[in-house]
Design brief:
244 residues; mainly alpha; 3-stranded antiparallel beta sheet; 3 strands
């Protein structure tokens, strides 16, 4: 009898989970660095020894990722939570048991974000061959968190940085604004803010708050920088060669 009751309760719980509605957030884009980490099947150890982004860069990343304490669906219909933490490359209703179904605390969300930026931070550290200021490292961490290490590895922006052509590199941020066939305004603003941070033009206000309006005015793409790039597909080899 106990076994039957247990099976019934399990079935009810599973049915409840599958019937639960999960909010779709088309304005939240899958972090390609987290896709890479998930696909690799293993994490990166030694977070304490890897350079951390400064407070400004981290505050900016939190602002653009947004805080969602309960699982939701991002623009790719992937189950996500917290500050863009990718639970799985599938719908939340298809995950059993569903992690974080009871919600995240702010402390838990901060810890997840620290772990989630590891792939990006390691990628920037290993691929960039020149010294970076805190602003430059923070901007690139945020950028690579979003577009992925492999896209960064093959990009014009990385080549320009390693040539120490920093202003030309800053202009490249504005190319990475496509999501499929769309050019979402939030992605355009995000790239403008990363470029401004890379140039050292941003700061937090007296209350430690980041205001994206401080960089939104520079959201256009310089005509000579190149064609817009899809953050998932990345930059084609011909585009890289032409930009050089």
């Amino acid at each position: 009898m106990r076994i039957i009751c247990f099976l019934v309760l399990t079935a009810i719980a599973a049915a409840t989970a599958s019937a639960q509605s999960f909010e779709k957030r088309p304005d939240k884009f899958t972090a390609q660095s987290l896709v890479e980490a998930l696909d690799s099947g293993h994490g990166i150890a030694g977070s304490s020894s890897i350079r951390q982004p400064d407070k400004l860069a981290l505050t900016m990343l939190k602002d653009f990722e947004g805080w969602e304490p309960r699982p939701y669906l991002d623009s790719s219909d992937y189950c996500t939570v917290g500050y863009g933490h990718l639970i799985a490359k599938k719908h939340c209703k298809d995950i059993d048991p569903l992690p974080f179904s009871d919600g995240l605390t702010q402390t838990e969300g901060d810890a997840l974000l620290d772990e989630d930026t590891l792939t990006a931070r390691v990628g920037v550290t290993e691929l960039v061959e020149v010294d970076l200021s805190d602003c430059q490292f923070g901007a690139l961490t945020n950028f690579v968190f979003n577009i992925g290490v492999e896209n960064f590895r093959k990009s014009t922006i990385l080549r320009l940085i390693n040539y120490e052509e920093h202003e030309a590199a800053a202009e490249q941020f504005g190319r990475w604004i496509r999501s499929g066939d769309d050019t979402p305004p939030g992605l355009v603003t995000r790239r403008a803010c990363e470029a401004a941070l890379y140039r050292g033009e941003l700061s937090l206000d007296a209350n430690g708050v980041f205001d994206r309006k401080d960089c939104a005015s520079g959201s256009g793409i310089a005509s000579y920088a190149g064609e817009p790039i899809d953050i998932v597909a990345g930059e084609k080899s011909g585009e890289v060669d032409e930009a050089e």
